[in-house]
Write a structure and sequence with these properties.
Elements lengths: L6 H4 L1 H14 L5 E2 L12 H12 L5 H5 L8 H12 L11 E4 L1 H13 L5 E5 L4 H9 L3 E5 L1 E2 L2 E2 L1 H11 L3 E4 L13 H14 L2 E5 L24 E6 L11 E4 L2 H14 L5 H12 L3 H26 L5 E2 L7 E5 L6 H10 L2 E2 L1 E2 L14 E5 L5 H19 L1
Parallel strand pairs: 1-13, 3-4, 3-7, 7-8, 8-9
Antiparallel strand pairs: 2-10, 5-6, 9-10, 11-12, 12-15, 14-15
Helix pairs in contact: 2-7, 3-11, 5-11, 6-7, 6-10, 8-9, 12-14
The protein binds pyridoxal-5'-phosphate (PLP).
The site of pyridoxal-5'-phosphate has 13 residues, from helix 6.
Length: 399
Amino acid sequence: MTAFSNRIPYMREAADVVRILFESLSDPGTISFGGGAPAKEMLPVDEVAAITKDILTKEAQGYPMLQYGNPMGFPALRQAVVEHLLVPGGLPAKYENIIISSGGMEGVSLAGHLYLDPGDVVLVESPTFVQSLETFQFFQANIVAVETDDHGFVIEALEDNIKKHHPKLIYVIPTFQNPSGRTTTLERRKAIAELASRYDVMVLEDDPYFELRYSGQALPPVKSFDKTGHVMYANSFSKIFAPGCRLGYVYAEKEIVDRMYDVKTALNSMTTVLPQVICAEFFNRGLYPGQLKRNRAVHCERRDAMMNSLSAHMPEGVTWVYPDGGLFTWAQLPGGLSSTDLLPEIMAAGVTYLPGRQFFAEGQPILDNCMRLSFGQMPPEVIDQGIQKMAKVIKSKLR
Ligand SMILES: Cc1ncc(COP(=O)(O)O)c(C=O)c1O
């Protein structure tokens, strides 16, 4: 059989993890703390039904909705990103600096296409989002994990690695990080932007949980401290609107988004127009503030349920992150327990989670006693049942 390209075996391991992740989302009999899906209760089904019907019938927009569109994105959605998301979030974005992507993942991919040749170094947080690792592997990048603590990148370690490896890209998820749930402090956000300028390295700031804050003070994105155009800000509509619509965007210098346009025309011509029109209309009808309020309330209740349940049931020595938002916490097991080895037994008890090892780049130090627990998908009472089941198995191993 004809050999696959070099990148296919290189990205295999991360691709396998991502496959398991998506498969676990669709098993109705399991208490899933695995996938990163938002609560189904907050998906705006009725609003999307009403908008779609209106647009296709009353407002005669049916033709543009089903026709080829602009590779840069549907104009009303680009404008909505500026007016309803970026400017209120503290970023002085302009329309020409926005490109709509097919989900947040395509933002990561576009950045990779623009900057990465095989062997180029990407600095990532340790741990970091497995699907982005897969994307960087697709480009045959040399992924170097940088030490993090409870407050994000350890800045001295980041600078040392910049000096040592001359990276092309720094990848950071500053807010309610996936998988750890941790948030990069204000000072470190400033420092990341400053290092990028000083050493002429591009930063890809991936911020899909920015809006999902349930406690604490909102922090300005790294991009807001960028004076030299070194930060690309990528975001997604998956956690604030609907992941199945596959919408995201990148906000960056015009020269950068213009080159992303070139890449996109080669990749997929444009992001699917139909969901872009619906999503733009959702924002322009003023439905977003109410939706965000409900979204935060549903997820906050689930975050609290998981935190309370972990406190009530986990044996001594198990620790976890208290996230001020987002969808994840990161738990650590004591006594040399491996979250990978425990998974089959916990799955047999009817619960899934993602073992921590999957969030570490290959060849880097791996914390196998960690696990990512997602509280997005399950209602509070089911979260409590799931944590109790997990705790029972963990306790039995510590005796
Ligand atoms: C950090 C991070 N980046 C990107 C994405 C991908 O977003 P999307 O589903 O819109 O492609 C996710 C989704 O979980 C994520 O956690």
